[in-house]
Design brief:
4-stranded antiparallel β-sheet, single chain, 5 domains, SH3 type barrels, alpha+beta, Alpha-Beta Plaits
């Protein structure tokens, strides 16, 4: 063993030791530089490649210190890999500063990834060409140009790829759509999420990703729902019976469209009579939205509200079938249903304190004349600021009372079965001072001015009692608003309130 050690020249030991030292210093220095550069997102993502490059550079420095630079394939391959990997890291770092910096400065505009991909490819090809020329000392262009067969083979093999690349460049220059636009391409609807050098990717409403080659995109019709105007027209088709006048149906559709969230008021919705069929008349309502992503939800909301609106307006939605009916039986059933509804309404009227002073006969008369309407969830029964001459009693379901101040809605109360709202409008004609919106499907009894006037004409003394009830309610409200109210002042105010209500009710009903 000692002889083996003594046989090793001291110079070789020093050379290896120095090589290890140089390689170790280089490794540590490169590691420190990498640790600093890892703060950049592109370097952090390519950390494995960066570590591989450091390892190859350390090996190359070690071999160089031992035996010097030798022009052979191993040394050339090591150097080529180091230069290529380093070049790639430098490219992605420069790319990050160039494109992501511009993106941060221009947040409102979403940029396509195509220029980034094309520029990266060009620079990588230039770096590769430079490395081959510097390390292996041969010109790639000479080989490619001199080989006509190779050029032909490559041209045929890359025909579709080159076609997609050129189409991608054309799409970027023409800009028929941008990332984030909602489009229809080749029959597929979705949001553009990426435009690369080869393909366009869209995300459908079903959260599916569709990849369409750019050469296909350039050959097909493109429908852009976002540009140049994000307002996009939608259609709702409904049918009504021949017994319902077309103007009544179209008016109901337009009134309903004005209440559906998401439907724009400019341009305004338009309702048209479309065609006459065997079983009814078809209508269409065109409306505009500016949120294509939610257009199925807006459409279903509109369509659901049509049923409730038509039900309240007694507009019949016909069935596209032949039906044989016993007319006598149908009339009998209709009469029986009406009597059942009247009995229900009678009970609802008796549950309201405002009508405690009405006789049974007056309740019966009012019940016969007061319809029972159906409303859907999220429908507005009344709107703040609207004219009103009726009140409502909740039969089933629930509503919430909202007040709008400075475009901010505040919930004041939640009402359920047996509770009423709109008394002031019924008795005085006061404008609606709040919006009432259904929190679930509801049935409401409506008592109108005309029906209630008949009751007041039959019983003139009822006006005094109603005035007293309304003034008491007003006093209770004032007492809640003013904790310092005194009993004496309340009595004086009570007389004044009663006289004021009495006069207003008589004037309103022309008594």
């Amino acid at each position: 063993m000692q002889e083996l050690i003594e046989s090793i020249p001291l110079l070789e030991i020093r050379r290896i030791a120095l090589a290890v030292v140089y390689a170790g210093i280089a490794f540590l220095a490169l590691k420190l530089i990498l640790r600093f550069l890892k703060r950049l997102p592109p370097i952090a993502k390519a950390s494995k490649l960066a570590n591989l490059t450091i390892g190859l550079a350390t090996i190359y420095i070690f071999l160089w210190r031992i035996s010097g630079i030798k022009e052979n394939f191993i040394y050339g391959l090591l150097l080529a890999l180091i230069l290529l990997f380093s070049g790639y890291l430098a490219i992605v770092t420069a790319e990050y500063f160039l494109f992501d910096f511009l993106k941060r400065r221009d947040l409102k505009r979403t940029r396509s990834g195509l220029p980034r991909d094309v520029l990266r490819m060009i620079v990588l090809l230039m770096v590769t060409y430079g490395v081959f020329l510097a390390v292996f000392h041969f010109n790639l262009s000479t080989i490619l140009v001199s080989s006509a067969v190779l050029t032909a083979v490559l041209g045929l093999a890359l025909q579709d790829v080159l076609s997609s690349v050129l189409a991608g460049v054309a799409l970027h220059l023409e800009k028929p759509f941008n990332v984030g636009d909602w489009v229809q391409i080749s029959g597929k609807e979705g949001e553009v999420v990426n435009v690369s050098w080869r393909a366009t990717r869209i995300k459908t409403l079903g959260n599916d990703y569709v990849v369409i080659p750019n050469n296909t995109v350039s050959k097909t019709d493109i429908v852009n729902y976002t540009q140049p105007d994000p307002r996009q027209g939608q259609w709702l088709y409904v049918s009504a019976s021949y017994n319902d006048p077309p103007n009544k149906v179209k008016k109901a559709l337009l009134e309903l469209a004005a209440q559906v969230p998401g439907i724009l008021k400019d341009p305004p919705p338009v309702a048209r009579t479309k065609e006459y069929q065997d079983f009814g008349i078809n209508y269409e309502c065109r409306y505009f939205i500016n949120d294509f992503y939610n257009h199925p939800e807006i459409h279903q909301d509109f369509a659901s509200r049509v049923w409730y609106k038509f039900k309240r307006e007694n507009i019949e939605i016909p069935f596209p079938i032949r039906t044989l009916r016993n007319l006598d039986w149908a009339e009998q059933k209709k009469t029986a249903d009406a009597e059942l509804d009247t009995q229900k309404v009678r009970g609802y009227l008796r549950s309201v304190a405002l009508f405690d002073d009405l006789s049974d006969q007056e309740i019966d008369n009012l019940a016969i004349e007061s319809p029972l309407y159906s409303y859907g969830v999220a429908e507005d029964v009344i709107e703040q600021g609207d004219e009103g001459t009726s009140m409502f009693i909740i039969a089933t379901g629930g509503v919430k009372v909202l007040i709008n101040e400075n475009e901010i809605e505040t919930e004041l109360a939640a009402l359920g079965p047996g509770e009423a709202f709109g008394e002031m409008s019924l008795l005085t004609g006061q404008k609606r001072n709040a919006t009432v919106r259904c929190t679930e499907d509801a049935q409401l009894v409506e008592i109108t001015k005309g029906n209630f006037k008949n009751i007041l004409l039959q019983d003139p003394g009822l006006v005094e009692k109603l005035s007293e009830k309304m003034s008491s309610r007003a006093l209770e409200l004032k007492a809640k608003l003013s904790a310092t109210s005194q009993i004496l002042s309340a009595q004086i105010d009570g007389e004044a309130e009663k006289e004021s209500f009495l006069k207003t009710i008589k004037n309103f009903f022309e008594l």
